[in-house]
Design goal:
Blueprint: H1 3-9, H2 12-26, H3 38-48, H4 51-66, H5 72-83, H6 88-99
Keywords: Plasmid
C-alpha cells in the first residue's frame, strides 16, 4: 500500500487533518493552487461577514481546532494571529495569565 492509498483508506476527516498539518508544516509562502487555497476563500468570506458572523465562526473554529494536533508551526502561527494587534502590556498580561493557569483574565486590568 502506498501513501496515497493509505490516505484514501482513512476517514475523510482524519485524512483532511493529516494533510492540513503536513501542508502547514511544509508551507513556504508560495501561492497554492486555487483548488486548495483555503486562505483566499477565508479572506473572501471574512471580508463580507458581519462582526457577529466573524465572532461565531471564530469561536466555532477555535472549539474545533482544540481537537486537532496542529504541528509546531501551525500552533505558532495561530497564536501569533491571536496576539496580533494587542499592545505589549496586553500580550504580556495574557501570556502571564496562561503561565499561571488562570481561566479568565480581568480585561479591566489589561
Amino acid at each position: 500500500m502506498d501513501l496515497v492509498d493509505g490516505i484514501y483508506a482513512c476517514h475523510p476527516d482524519d485524512a483532511e487533518h493529516v494533510l492540513a498539518v503536513i501542508l502547514e508544516e511544509w508551507r513556504t509562502g508560495v501561492p497554492l493552487p486555487t483548488f486548495i487555497d483555503a486562505d483566499s476563500d477565508a479572506e473572501f468570506w471574512a471580508h463580507a461577514a458581519s462582526f457577529e458572523e466573524l465572532r461565531a465562526i471564530f469561536i466555532a473554529a477555535g472549539r474545533r481546532l482544540i481537537s486537532y494536533r496542529l504541528g509546531r508551526r501551525g500552533r505558532f502561527r495561530m497564536m501569533q494571529r491571536l496576539l496580533d494587534g494587542l499592545r505589549d502590556d496586553e500580550r504580556h498580561a495574557i501570556l502571564q495569565a496562561l503561565r499561571e493557569g488562570k481561566d479568565l483574565i480581568d480585561v479591566d486590568q489589561l
